[in-house]
Design a protein that fits this description.
By secondary structure, chain A is of the alpha+beta class. Helix content of chain A is 21%, strand content 35%. In chain A, strand 18 and strand 19 form a beta hairpin. In chain A, helix 1 crosses helix 4 and helix 3 packs across helix 6. The longest helix of chain A is centred in the first third of the chain and has 16 residues. Chains A and B meet through strand 17, strand 18, strand 19, helix 10 and strand 21 of A and strand 17, strand 18, strand 19, helix 10 and strand 21 of B. Strand 17 of chain A pairs parallel with strand 19 of chain B.
């Protein structure tokens, strides 16, 4: 199966664990059997590979998410990067061209496109495989999955099939209805539109060539910024008559708010935390290294990270967005392709960061114009490169890096260092990147 | 007026702002007119000095609290240090001997003894002055303040006076009663025993010499550890017939729990925090540098510090102690006589600390056996002394301190440095202190 996982999202609704560079699909809140935690992205990827280890997975995402995706899925994951946001049709066309021109997949093969963030189990992945198969047969240009509704939701669009409870031609699509209308749709056998669909690569490329003047993936990528914003629904779905829908009757949940997310956690406390005996139906999600104590709480969610602390009645947690948009604090925790970056102290003209490099990884070779840095290695081994001078580094070693000085570290084992930044203007934009050529 | 302020307390009930070295009286939660915050200790001291600037104040406390008291009241505050805990009679005898033998106050003068932690206003301090005066007259050996009860509390002992509503001889003392009994006491004119009393210095010293074999303050201090534990009530009050009580009818609150403390705060949010419109009667007390967001909260207290996070229904907050006793985490924030010490990161074999020195102050000249340290100066100016070598230090300067190496910093301006500690065993006990002799 060829599959494109769409990874988007702004990360406001699950603050403080999500932020501008850590969308909800990257938060590690699902406990695995080994006691470690995994994210929705990791869960989805693992599920696809478990059903069919030969599945050909590509992640379609923006450049800001590539580091964290590589951190969570490994360096070798295929990523189709959108240079900027241009709505769903250009994004899907670009990823489809990537499959054809970079991964050399034939125009006659199908591809499944699916969002990365629903909470699902293995029957869902089997249904994706089945969707791929029915798309490959070629009887319909577009094949969708329809989720069997569990209640008359106002949150989803509905798909009305010609025949109930089986693979069927789509009769019509309906916009998000009110509850009464939703009830009527459901009587007719309507299904939720989960944004999961499959098509032959040639089908979408043909439409793309009609709408956009481009040669191939590389050309499309280069002119991406000049493209018009256009949705996949408008460009494809609304103009297509040959659409089929495959019903899915298993677990499918949208974990977009703390309220729905905590319902899917298999424990009440994640991280350091204690509830008293009077606390009921409450949750602690704690990424800090100090304890959270909950006393007499009912239906309360406590979420703590280096970015801040949320304490919310469960029902209210879905209204978080405008409050978080008002916070002007910088992001304090980031997963990078090479490890993690945690701001542990901020002063007026200095900032202290714990940098953790994964074994075999290195940060980009770079310099800053407006700040000096001091590194103190606290664990692990590696090699520092400062203005092209290499040096083996171990715990206790101190490296001073003046403004303008090129620097990086290559971690041999997992390596942690405390970085003290000193300067009048400390910004993430102050960074010059160089090509590293080692002797 | 001579006054001894008793500063004790273990600091569990106001966790995470209070801890083993920061008892409740040191937490800065009371907003002053200039927008800064002050502690109960600072509020009490200021109140005494406002009523009479010549008041002769001595703080009686344990050695663990001397640093924070000097930090909050200044280097010149008189402190009588208990070498260890030996119950109330030895503690009061020691402080009284300190007044006589160190501060050279005559045995014929009175002294008022009062706990440092009730929340009071200026009329209370005026009553302390009056207590001092009536004690000085010498008609009674012991003079107490009795608080006019506002409700039939089970939390306090009661004093029954011979005559209601005026300075009167005490008829009898009553242990903490149940509510019904308390109501009856109150009908008789009973007053709460607030643990505030006055006596002539010679009176307590005479009793002390009868019970303990000692020469003077210095001798008593040296043999303090060998003394029997004995309460002031048992040694003095129960054996004394000549006791008078002065009623006090003003504001007097015991702010021992988050519930009572927040009631006396004049704002709902201290530090970085936001409530949504649905939140009611809730409080944020946040010492961290990141925001707390409260949504849909009713009667909830959120308190956050580098030591941890408490989220508690107001009523439940008084039952916090056993939970906090189970936390084995080290203290992350401490006020020292020279400034503050904040642990900003803990790893297996390293720890990073933000050290802030007040202008003109220096830490003790010391060394560690089992850890190296790296200092990076992030703001301010001062002088470092490393193995007797002096050096002027400024932001960006790095000082490496190997295990065994003697070190200190003298701050010229306020000075902040990031200290990275590296070693297999990092403990507060690993500290050798030296006398500093500068050339």
């Amino acid at each position: 199966m060829n599959i494109i996982l769409l990874s988007g999202g702004s990360g406001k609704r699950l603050w403080p664990l999500s932020n501008d560079i850590r969308s909800k699909q990257f938060i590690k809140v699902f406990k695995k059997e080994d006691g470690e935690y995994e994210s929705m992205l990791q869960r989805m990827y693992k599920g696809i590979k478990e059903v069919n280890k030969d599945s050909n997975v590509t992640i379609a995402t923006s450049s800001t998410q590539t580091s964290i995706i590589k951190n969570q899925l490994g360096e070798n994951i295929d990523i189709s990067i959108e240079p900027c946001r241009r709505d769903t049709f250009p994004a899907i066309a670009l990823a489809t061209a990537y499959l054809h021109d970079v991964k050399k997949i034939s125009t006659d093969e199908s591809v499944v496109v699916c969002p990365v963030d629903p909470y699902v189990e293995s029957d869902y992945f089997k249904t994706l495989e089945k969707l791929y198969e029915v798309s490959n047969k070629g009887n319909f240009n577009l094949s969708l999955i329809g989720i069997k509704p569990t209640y008359p939701s106002e949150k989803y669009g509905y798909i009305i099939p010609e025949e109930k409870d089986k693979l069927s031609k789509v009769k019509t699509f309906k916009e998000k209805p009110n509850v009464e209308t939703a009830k009527e749709y459901i009587k007719e056998g309507a299904l939720w539109n989960a944004g999961v669909f499959a098509y032959k690569i040639g089908y979408v490329l043909d439409i793309a060539h009609k709408l956009i003047d481009f040669e191939d993936y590389y050309d499309l990528y280069d002119k991406y910024e000049t493209l018009n914003k256009i949705s996949f629904d408008y460009a494809v779905v609304e103009k297509e008559d040959q659409i089929q829908v495959l019903p899915f009757d298993g677990l499918w949940k949208d974990l977009g708010t703390w309220n729905t997310l905590t319902e899917s956690m298999n424990e009440r406390i994640m991280g350091k935390g204690v509830f008293d005996e009077k606390s009921k139906n409450s949750y602690i999600i704690n990424e800090l290294n100090v304890p959270v104590l909950g006393m007499g709480l009912e239906d309360i969610i406590v979420a703590a990270s280096p970015d801040g602390i949320l304490v919310s009645k469960k029902d209210e947690s879905s209204y978080i967005k405008p409050y978080v948009e008002n916070f002007k604090e910088q992001v304090r925790y980031a997963e990078k392709s090479w490890g993690t970056y945690k701001v542990i102290n901020i002063e007026d003209e200095s900032q202290t960061v714990l940098v953790t490099l994964n074994p075999g990884h290195s940060m980009k070779y770079h310099s800053h114009d407006n700040r000096d840095e001091v590194w103190t290695v606290v664990s692990g081994e590696g090699v520092s490169i400062i203005d092209d001078m290499e040096q083996i580094i171990r715990p206790g070693d101190v490296i001073t890096i003046d403004a303008g000085c090129k620097h990086t570290v290559l971690a041999t084992t997992q390596l942690k260092l405390v970085e003290v930044q000193i300067g009048k203007e400390i910004t993430v934009e102050d960074k010059n990147v160089y090509k590293l050529t080692r002797k």
